[in-house]
Design brief:
It is a single chain. With about 325 residues, this protein is an alpha/beta fold. It is built from nine helices and 16 strands. The strands form five sheets. Strands 1-14-5-4-3-8-13-2 form an eight-stranded mixed sheet, with helices on both faces. Strands 6-7 form a two-stranded antiparallel ribbon. The chain is globular, with a radius of gyration of 18 Å.
Length: about 325
């Protein structure tokens, strides 16, 4: 999600994972056109090979994007996906819709009963997470991409830092950092603390998600506005070392995706509808609104997200967060 003054952005729902992973991915892929594509990691076996997957409707293209604090192409590490987002590129090429799925969403995980959806990544890596999302939404996932949050530090510092706006003073006891209300300029280390905080935030993890969204939005905008060749080169190297894609994604596909995202007239954030917070197996979870998820998923499958947005209105912003 990119800086373009004529572009309108819509965010649906205030609860759930609303993040801008695709912002960084888009900016990075745009810059990748002048970088060595071989530096982008390909994840073998990321796409499910078993049968029973939803059929492709041929109406647009769908990517599953994740963000993680650990290498997202190494399921053996037992890491969990901190950010999960289903991204729909419309068939007409006029809009990109990002559907954020709460990482604590309590859903059926194939072969593991019901669990938090991010546990699917720990249980079986990208392929099991894709199967879980497909089972939840009945939307066919065409490609997979991941962003390593550890790359935030180098990517941010490469650009000379980024600016975010905080609405209220807050203290993070875990990282012993105080945030003052107002516009803040973040270096890499500060940015990582900013996107990780959930303590002392009213919405806990949900507020952390909003911080991630605001930061990634600012990071991508700064990358696309940067004209200094040395900063661009440093950012490209940091971005390529932090992004992973499934092994069916070719160099041409990356360049095509970048061009498409840069030309898209509308990019919107949506959140899988949430029913309420609850407790399952001694842990806090998010219960999704089944009817709402079905309605939104149908809109994605049938490439009519615009109609869904018109019915449900817009809320939230990436410009200022708690």
């Amino acid at each position: 999600m990119l800086r373009n003054r004529s572009r309108r952005r819509v965010v649906i729902g205030c609860g759930g994972l609303a993040v801008g992973v695709l912002l960084v991915l888009a900016g990075g892929l745009y810059l990748l056109q002048r970088a060595y594509d071989g530096e982008v990691r390909r994840v073998a076996g990321a796409m499910p090979s078993a049968g029973g997957r939803p059929s492709s409707t041929g109406r647009g293209e769908n990517w599953l994007l994740i963000g993680s604090d650990r290498r997202a192409d190494d399921p053996s590490m037992g890491s969990r996906a901190d950010t999960i987002m289903l991204v729909h590129l419309s068939g007409r090429g006029d809009r990109v819709s990002l559907v954020s799925i709460p990482r604590d969403g309590w859903v059926p995980v194939p072969g593991h009963g019901s669990s938090k959806i991010n546990a699917a990544f720990a249980y079986g890596g990208p392929s099991l997470l894709i199967r879980t999302v497909e089972q939840l939404t009945h939307v066919r996932v065409d490609h997979y991409a991941a962003l390593d949050f550890g790359g935030f530090v180098k990517m941010t510092d490469a650009l000379g830092g980024v600016d975010v706006t905080i609405t209220k003073d807050t203290y993070d006891p875990m990282h012993e950092r105080r945030w003052k209300a107002g516009r803040q300029h973040l270096d890499g280390t500060e940015a990582l603390d900013f996107v990780r905080q959930r303590w002392n935030l009213p919405g806990g993890d949900l507020d952390r998600i909003k911080r991630q969204q605001a930061f990634l939005h600012a990071l991508a905008a700064k990358a696309l506005d940067t004209r200094n060749p040395l900063k661009i080169d440093r950012f490209v190297r940091a971005a390529t070392g932090s992004v992973s894609v499934d092994d069916s994604v070719t160099s041409g596909a990356l360049r095509g995706l970048a061009r498409r995202l840069l030309k898209t007239s509308l990019m919107e954030y949506l959140t899988a509808p949430v029913a309420k917070m609850a407790e399952r197996d001694g842990q806090s979870v998010v219960l999704l609104d089944d009817d709402g998820v079905r309605s939104l998923s149908a809109a994605v499958r049938e490439d009519r997200v615009g109609q869904y947005v018109t019915r449900n209105g817009a809320a939230n912003s990436v410009n200022a967060v708690r």
